[in-house]
């Protein structure tokens, strides 16, 4: 058993035994908040492969924990920023379990002048500490207002952040933001794979237990074909997600912060895993029949998560457009 397998088992057991644990408790007891934080700042010093293992289990359990925005995006943004003082100030706090969020370039209409930040980020995953890319820099800023959205997936809250000439604290250089984005896409792809795998598990269990005409519905050829197609889809999604994680690990020591290989692998994973999760969640509802559309059954929650995840870093077609621009030289 590999280290990532052991980590996966520990996270799965914890989430099953303590589904109501807070992010602070979860982060503190398992150390997942500091998974990608270097050891000198109080973290575990792990890489994208270990991050993907945790993300997959969180997706499988539909966990509401802010792992993606805090332990992945915020941590990677501070690391990529390369500011020693900011890393010493922020990374131990993030490793300790403080929630955070990151506004990437293009996430809002922001202006940074004379050390003051103004503008609005319409949609940002909820987080206490706010990091913003503006004017080629990464800065820490406290929003003037936070307006929570009523979202389709209530387990992943979003906020509108408004900044009205608020002072900022430097947090690093903004040149490596594309790597931060792509590592976020890779982690989300792993999470989507976990959700899709759980949908397949639920559909398969129902096909074995549900009887019609004196036999399990899983014995019918049409149902067998659906489940076989879903298995292929889920395993292919897992391969795409792992490929993105491996590309992220391979680029850790690269001089090019943009990471061409990571960008390609992340675009593939972002496109394929988003659509795979949507398909698996939809087929899970179909295979369950009437009970699949009831409020009491969790199938609808996976479909909602799949739908919202498919927009988080842009829809699948946006990932494909970026991939085409990179690989084929076409204009995105």
Describe this protein's structure.
The chain has 332 residues and is α+β, with helices and mostly antiparallel strands. It folds into three domains: 3-95, Butyryl-Coa Dehydrogenase, subunit A, domain 1; 100-173, no CATH class; 177-327, Up-down Bundle (Butyryl-CoA Dehydrogenase, subunit A, domain 3). The protein has ten helices and nine strands. The protein has helices at 3-17, 23-30, 48-60, 67-81, 84-95, 177-209, 221-250, 260-288, 299-312, 316-327, and strands spanning 100-103, 109-113, 116-125, 129-134, 137-141, 145-148, 158-173, 211-212, 215-216. Strands 1, 2, 3, 4, 5, 6 and 7 form a seven-stranded mixed sheet that branches. The chain has a two-stranded antiparallel sheet with strand order 8-9. A hairpin with a 2-residue loop joins strand 4 and strand 5. Helix 3 (48-60) crosses helix 6, helix 4 runs antiparallel to helix 5 and helix 8 runs antiparallel to helix 10. The relative contact order is 0.11.
Features:
alpha+beta, Butyryl-Coa Dehydrogenase, subunit A, domain 1, single chain, 9 strands, seven-stranded mixed beta sheet, 332 residues, Butyryl-CoA Dehydrogenase, subunit A, domain 3, 16% strand
Give a short summary of the structure:
This protein has 332 residues and is an alpha+beta fold.
């Amino acid at each position: 058993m590999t280290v990532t397998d052991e980590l996966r088992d520990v996270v799965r057991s914890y989430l099953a035994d303590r589904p109501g644990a807070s992010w602070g408790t979860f982060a503190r007891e398992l150390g997942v908040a500091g998974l990608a934080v270097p050891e000198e700042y109080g973290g575990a010093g792990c890489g994208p492969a270990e991050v993907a293992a945790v993300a997959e289990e969180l997706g499988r359990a539909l966990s509401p924990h802010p792992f993606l925005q805090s332990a992945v995006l915020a941590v990677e943004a501070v690391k990529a920023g390369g500011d020693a003082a900011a890393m010493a100030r922020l990374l131990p706090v993030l490793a300790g379990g403080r929630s955070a969020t990151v506004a990437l370039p293009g996430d809002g209409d922001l202006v940074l002048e004379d050390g003051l930040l103004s503008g609005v980020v319409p949609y940002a995953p909820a987080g206490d500490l706010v990091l913003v890319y503006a004017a080629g820099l990464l800065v820490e800023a406290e929003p003037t207002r936070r307006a929570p959205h009523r979202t389709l997936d209530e387990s992943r809250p979003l906020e509108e952040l408004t900044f009205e000439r608020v002072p900022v604290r430097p947090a690093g250089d903004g040149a490596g933001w594309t790597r931060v984005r792509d590592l976020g896409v890779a982690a989300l792809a792993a999470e989507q794979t976990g959700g899709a795998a759980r949908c397949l598990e639920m559909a398969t269990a129902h096909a074995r237990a549900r009887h019609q005409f004196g036999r399990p519905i899983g014995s019918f050829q049409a149902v067998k074909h659906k489940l076989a197609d879903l298995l292929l889809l889920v395993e292919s999604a897992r391969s795409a997600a792992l490929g993105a994680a491996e590309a992220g690990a391979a680029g850790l020591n690269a001089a090019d912060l943009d990471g061409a290989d990571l960008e390609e692998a992340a675009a593939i994973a972002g496109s394929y895993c988003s659509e795979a999760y949507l398909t698996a969640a939809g087929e899970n509802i179909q295979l369950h029949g009437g009970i699949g559309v009831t409020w009491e059954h969790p199938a609808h929650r996976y479909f909602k998560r799949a739908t919202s995840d498919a927009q988080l870093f842009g829809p699948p077609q946006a990932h494909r457009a970026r991939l085409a621009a990179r690989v084929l030289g076409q204009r995105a």
